[in-house]
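Dock zinc ion; give full complex structure.
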Amino acid sequence: MSALARVTGHETEHTMHSGSCLCGAVSFDVSSELPGPDACHCLQCRKHSGHYFASTDIPRAALTVRGAERVTWFRSSEKVQRGFCATCGSSLFWDPIGRDFIGVAMGAFDGPTDTRLRIHIFVASKGDYYDIADGLPQNQR
Ligand SMILES: [Zn+2]
Ligand SMILES: [Zn+2]
């Protein structure tokens, strides 16, 4: 496919995905396609999400948040903060500080996401109460 065809195809394709927290205080739009999400089984994601954390990394510029003042940010490591609704606690954002992308929780999206889980990561840290049997690639870290 030529570069021109790609540009034309992109312009005719309208991508907009929306989501919210459980109580609705925080909602968001994503103006880009959603890249294949990863499922992270690391201890921090397990604690933050209550299970494992599936998220899609999108360009920061593609994300519009309404009710952003209701998002509480927790600095879970030197380079990452996690955003959740201060009212209902929904896990929403995985924010690698200073990078040009941000992770958005798959569970927060409403309607079809038009994407599929791509890979499991930090599988070495996963809980012992479930198996990963979907045939997707698994990274130990
Ligand atoms: Zn909420
Ligand atoms: Zn993780």
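Observed: The pocket of zinc ion (ligand 1) is lined by residues 21-23, 25-26, 85, 87-88, 90 (CB under 6 Å).
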